[in-house]
Amino acid sequence: MPRIALVTYDPPPTKVDRDLPVLLDALRASGAGADAVFWDDAGVDWGAYDLAVIRSTWDYSWRVDEFVAWARKCGALTRLANPASVVRWNTDKRYLGDLAAAGVPVVPTRYAGPGDAVDLPDDHEYVVKPTSGAGARYAARYTPERRETAVRHLARMHEEGLTAMVQPYMKGIDAQGERALQFFGGRLLHASRKRAVLAPGTAFDADKVSHPGLEPWAPTPAELAVAERALAAVPDAPHLLYARVDLVDGEDGRPRVMELELVEPNLFLFLHPDSVPDVVTAILAAAAR
Fold first, then answer.
1. Tell me: the pLDDT tens digits for 81-104?
2. Contact 227/247 with Cβ under 8 angstroms?
3. CA-atom Rg of the chain in angstroms
């Protein structure tokens, strides 16, 4: 049976991956050798594994260059899921521009790197966040009246070398929430819905609840169609072991891609325990290729 590394990080007590022990136990019960290993542990022999599955490397957005370099190194020593090329593409949210160019409906987005000027909206609410981030890190929601605060927010990100994104606040989140469609082994695994993460007036550097009001969700045909179009537009799409497509409704009521999570998406197995056998089957099949 294969040896499988579930790649994680050394988390603080409030950021523990609840699914990791469940998945480890299930893989071991299938007869596989499965270990949870830290991605930045220099002592790990990645070549000793048949497959390394990135699961909860939830500190990578603070260390993007280091993490991408690790993925490239690990992928040269063993099979890495998802592949290093996908990791490199997906760690920078400018991929939304690639999806839009491919005809995928996405949340309209403008970008501003250090030194770039950006015109902030003066007639609607908007969101400012970095192109590399997780858990709503450095994200905030603004009204036109809070322009000065938004400008300071942009300056802070630029001082740290971060590229900013400016998006209209999608009011559909307040009514229908954000839907997360989880794929594994090329098939829809399950879906979940969460409520709005960004409350009005919350500071960009404040901690946020990443998945408020999380609940199971039955995706509509329109949601599934948009998710599948987004995945088909990903470079190296046939090699995706897992993916999560986060959707919100546009002003026309139709789903748009908010984010495409191809690096370390939370699987929410604690909410969907019946999905565990399917995840194990897909991981074992990937390890056997």
1. 999 999 999 999 999 999 999 999
2. yes
3. 19
